[in-house]
Amino acid sequence: MKIQPYMLLALRRNIENVVKLTDGEFDQIASRFTPKLIRKNQFLLEEQDKCKHDYFVIKGALRQYRMHDTKEWVNQFAFEGWWISDWYSMLNNTPSDFYIDALENSEVLQVNKKALDSLFDQIVKFDKFYRVMFQRAFSAQQKRIAFMQKSAESRYEEFVSMYGRFETHVSQAQIASYLGITRESLSRIKNLGIKRLIDQK
Amino acid sequence: MKIQPYMLLALRRNIENVVKLTDGEFDQIASRFTPKLIRKNQFLLEEQDKCKHDYFVIKGALRQYRMHDTKEWVNQFAFEGWWISDWYSMLNNTPSDFYIDALENSEVLQVNKKALDSLFDQIVKFDKFYRVMFQRAFSAQQKRIAFMQKSAESRYEEFVSMYGRFETHVSQAQIASYLGITRESLSRIKNLGIKRLIDQK
User: Fold this and answer.
1) Which of A10, A150, B49, B152 has the CA that lies 20 to 30 A from B4?
2) How buried is residue A196: exposed, middle or buried, by Cβ count under 10 Å (0-12/13-18/19+)?
């Protein structure tokens, strides 16, 4: 599959939210990305694989999770305009602890680490773009760690603030797994939330 | 207190592990940092404060933790040559969930967000340095999240691989708090580790 104009547009828009590029700079960046279609339930990464790519989501919904005690623990979701990867595995060339799979038929643009490193050296603004992305991702993750020991209600609020507008892409079971609670607890929390909204009227 | 030559040397060495600087570039960077002495148990940041600085540790030992259910949960330690801050609070200008305090008398260099942003714009190599720092910090934190649901033994191994050579700076209670286990469990794990080493001989 060849890279399509709408994919280029989505990628450029995402980068230009942070840094403005010349056409020449963008073409050089885009030339290192290749499109990939992933069917629902197909893997981009499996535990024990070495992660080789960073992925930019064009369409669909993906999740990163790990298996522990035969249960899935969702670590992150990614939707249109998000990036997803296992950077620890990629940086250290070590087997991943995570799976990344598609929750629905999805399209991503992938770029490998060598291409990224050469883009970082060639295009200063691309380096800056990734600095800002990592800065946000790191800070969001610090916050997530703090949330993990708060109440289930707080954790659901965190989910809504991060992912709320994509909630229809994700099953209740997957949200519960992200929050580390049962489906029954999730539905209790959501009902409480609705009750609170009605009470406020 | 004026910035001292050994502080400048430590800062320059830390940055030059990633990018080489001219003297002019380093002087420009260093001019935005100011030294700060922190006595044992003194705070650099308290919960509900807005975090205003990134800190580079010259000497001593610091920790970042939060309070939950009247217990301290250590999120991160920082020793000579490490950086520590609450980036979520700094980026979003929101009250912090965390405390940062000194485990022993310490010296840090501090730099505020406005100075950092202007350095990012003026010195391309400094931007790259932070991109690499955030990339490593983000990936280490992804790994830490995966570890948090593994066994106490695995979590102790993670602590040793990250902080082992600084273990003498940190009390057993603080290590236990970082691992999310009791002091009794920590001492059992350490004894098991020593037994294993002896058995291998």
Assistant:
1) B49
2) exposed
**Cβ distance of B141 and A146 shorter than 8 Å:** no
Which tokens hold the place of A34? 């290749």
CB of B171 within 8 Å of any CB in chain A?
A: no
Q: How far apart are CA B45 and CA B43, in angstroms?
A: 5
**Is A139 in CB contact (< 8 Å) with chain B?**
yes
Q: Are A102 and A39 in contact (CB under 8 A)?
A: yes
Q: What is the pLDDT of residues B10-25, one digit of tens each?
A: 999 999 999 999 999 9
The dotted CATH code for A5-139 is: 2.60.120.10
- Tens-place pLDDT, residues B55-84: 999 999 999 999 888 888 888 899 999 999
Class of domain B5-147: mainly beta
A72 part of contact set with chain B, CB < 8 Å: no
Q: Is the ipTM of this complex over 0.85?
A: yes
Using a CB–CB cutoff of 8 Å, tell me whether A143 touches chain B.
Answer: yes
Best mutation site among A48, A138, A147 for testing chain B: the one with the most B CBs within 10 Å? A138
> What is the distance in angstroms between the Cα of B137 and the nearest Cα belonging to chain A?
7
Other Cβ atoms within 10 Å of B103 Cβ, number: 19
* Mean pLDDT along residues B182-194: 86
Write out chain A residues lying below 8 Å of B134, CB-based: 131, 134-135, 137-138
Angle between the N-to-C axes of helices A152-163 and A124-147, in degrees from 0 to 180, rounded to the nearest 10: 160
Cβ within 8 Å, pair A75-B134? no
* Cα torsion angle, B19, B23, B25, B30, sign: positive
User: Of B75, B98, B146, which is closest to A97 when you measure between CB atoms?
Assistant: B146
Give residue-wise pLDDT tens across range B100-159.
999 999 999 999 999 999 999 999 999 999 999 999 999 988 888 777 767 888 888 888
